[in-house]
Amino acid sequence: MIVDQLAAAPIVPILRKVPYEKSAQIVKALIDGGVASIEVTMETERAEDIIAEAIDAYGAQVLVGAGTVLNVDDCRRAIEAGAQFIVTPALDEEVVSYAVEKGVPIIPGVFTPAEMMRAVKLGAEAIKLFPASVLGPAFIKDVKGPLGHIPIMTTGGITLETAADYIQAGAAAVGTGSALLKKELIASEDWEGLKKETEQWLAAVSGNRVMG
Q: Which end of the chain is more exposed for a tag (fewer CB within 10 A), N or C?
């Protein structure tokens, strides 16, 4: 299952509106830093090209997914580009059903236990708790009691200092955008710095994961 692959290196970098001309170097730095998956949001310039090129270069070693998938058209374009998983900011049942029909794992955004259960009933392999920082790690720990069978990826407002708390509470993976992909590193093309930042994030969560 995709969740096992995400949890293997439980930091999922989110490439949101990164410049296309730097995207290959960004992806390489992240992978050199040790990630096993990346997410490219669909409002990013030439998102489909970034997804396709990342899969062409690294598809055998990492998962490349599409995020901020807002409708079926976004989902179709992402899948046609080769996206290996789909992430949405909210629970759109039409989008979930489309991805399931196409056989592509989908991780829809949810905020409540009821939405979690509905997403899984529709065929989602995992859910994205968003915005996670509003609810905090305690919510995950509590909800994993009755809903322990539902894998959770957390995204939104998570920092290097708090990432481990979410994994320790029971999250399978943590999605992070600008907190990891720092604008100054990208602007100055400091790819070694981005690699080291990635290594820091992975080190922060290693050994803290709760299995099961």
A: C
Burial class (CB in 10 A: 0-12, 13-18, 19+), 62: buried
Please state the pTM of the whole predicted model.
Answer: 0.95
- Which helix (H) or strand (E) segment holds residue 87: the answer is strand 85-87
Q: What is the pLDDT along the chain (212 residues), one digit of tens a residue?
A: 889 999 999 999 999 999 999 999 999 999 999 999 999 999 999 999 999 999 999 988 999 999 999 999 999 999 999 999 999 999 999 999 999 999 999 999 999 999 999 999 999 999 999 999 999 999 999 999 999 999 999 999 999 999 999 999 999 999 999 999 999 999 999 999 999 999 999 999 986 544 43
Catalytic residues, which ones?
Answer: 39, 128
Report the C-alpha gap between 68 and 28 in whole angstroms: 22
146: cis peptide before it, omega within 30°? no
Axis crossing angle, helix 47-58 with helix 72-80, rounded to the nearest 10: 40
Cβ atoms 35, 12 nearer than 8 A: yes
